[in-house]
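Input/output pair, single chain:
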Amino acid sequence: MDFDDGEGKTVLTLYMQRGPEEGYVLHVEHLAAPLR
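Output:
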């Protein structure tokens, strides 16, 4: 799931992986400067 800032650039990329014990692990990678 990608969120675009409206200019075609990906701001956040969410990776959802299934862990063997913890169920689901949500990894958020900031590809741009944090929104203020």
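Residues 1-35 form one domain. The chain has one domain: 1-35.
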